[in-house]
């Protein structure tokens, strides 16, 4: 019975891992995509020209530009329309012989109509780089069923490029991890910001070395961790906030975002003490906010007399 339960748990974990992305092409077989060169030549699936830590795959795709065109396209029709509601950050590994120019990643409908595309700069030559193409602007287009790629766009050349592992992941941004400078200036209102300190209790939820620490003021019923930043948040797609909390007692936490005349807050129950837990705050009702430059978190909101210290991260 224990073996059966373990097998079921492993299967579930594997399923969750697979569902964290949508894989469109890895050239190892089974994608079902047929690539066709337009103004250039799709060379097929070939041996990896330079396996490394970024891409150790045995087989990759190859495409050669024709130097009489400044846009050479590599096109593949999908079996159905792409759902970009959640998975709208497209990643592709590219081995380029040049460190200049741009890569175009485009989704378009075979029937014609609006498309979604993104150019990124080629940054490194003769090694694998994984590039990210943010197509979240096309989430409202429901008939995108074709992938279009262009390597070294706007340039007349005859270079050969290699590409692999085309996948889509959810839109995720890390605002603060207390490990590297985030651009957020943390202070406190009515309490004390203790700075970035060693993790008080690493576990499977959060094993980071460094976390943020805040201590309540017993004379106040609302002690806030107060973070400010310069560039307003884009909440159009990034409006589900996740954070990890280590609380010394079961209580509540208030999470608030503020801008110029714009604000929304949520109060969550903290049911676990003395260990890390991850919490989610849904601010989708604020997707049209354009001025948010403040985070406020109140630990045990509305309760005075607390001298407790709380830790937050990620």
Can you give a write-up of this model?
By secondary structure, this protein is mainly beta. The protein is 5% helix and 44% strand. It is built from 1 helix and 21 strands. A hairpin with a 4-residue loop joins β17 and β18 (263-270). The protein is elongated.
What share of the residues lie within helices?
under 10%
Mean pLDDT: 90
Order of helices and strands: HEEEEEEEEEEEEEEEEEEEEE
| Low-confidence spans | 1-19
N-C termini distance:
37 Å
Strand content: 35-45%
Major pleated sheet = 6 strands, antiparallel
The best one-word shape is: elongated
Using only C-alpha atoms, the radius of gyration works out to: 24 Å
* Structural class designation: mainly beta
Count of DSSP strands: 21
How many helical stretches?
Answer: 1
Q: What is this structure, in a nutshell?
A:
Helix content is about 5%, strand content about 45%.
């Amino acid at each position: 019975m224990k073996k059966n339960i373990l097998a079921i748990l492993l299967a579930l974990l594997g399923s969750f891992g697979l569902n964290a992305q949508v894989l469109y092409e890895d050239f190892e077989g089974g994608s079902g995509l047929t690539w066709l060169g337009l103004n250039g030549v799709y060379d097929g699936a070939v041996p990896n020209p330079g396996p490394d830590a970024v891409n150790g795959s045995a087989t990759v795709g190859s495409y050669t530009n024709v130097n009489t065109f400044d846009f050479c396209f590599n096109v593949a029709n999908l079996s159905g329309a792409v759902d970009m509601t959640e998975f709208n950050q497209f990643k592709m590994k590219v081995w380029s012989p040049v460190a200049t120019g741009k890569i175009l990643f485009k989704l378009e409908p075979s029937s014609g109509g609006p498309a979604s595309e993104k150019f990124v700069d080629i940054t490194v030559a003769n090694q694998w780089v994984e590039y990210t193409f943010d197509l979240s602007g096309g989430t409202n287009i429901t008939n995108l069923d074709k992938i279009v790629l262009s390597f070294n766009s706007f340039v007349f050349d005859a270079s050969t490029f290699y590409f692999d592992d085309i996948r889509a992941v959810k839109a995720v941004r890390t605002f603060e991890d207390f490990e590297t400078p985030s651009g957020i200036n943390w202070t406190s209102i009515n309490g004390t910001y203790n700075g970035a300190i060693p993790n008080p209790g690493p576990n499977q939820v959060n094993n980071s070395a460094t976390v943020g620490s805040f201590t309540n003021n017993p004379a106040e019923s609302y002690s806030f961790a107060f973070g400010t930043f310069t560039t307003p948040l884009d909440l159009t797609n990034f409006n589900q906030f996740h954070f990890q909390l280590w609380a010394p007692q079961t209580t509540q936490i208030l999470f608030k975002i503020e801008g110029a005349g714009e604000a929304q807050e949520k109060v969550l129950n903290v049911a676990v003490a003395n260990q890390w837990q991850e919490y989610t705050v849904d601010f989708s009702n604020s997707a049209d906010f354009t001025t948010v430059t403040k985070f406020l978190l109140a630990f045990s909101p509305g309760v005075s007399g607390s001298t407790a210290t709380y830790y937050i991260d990620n």
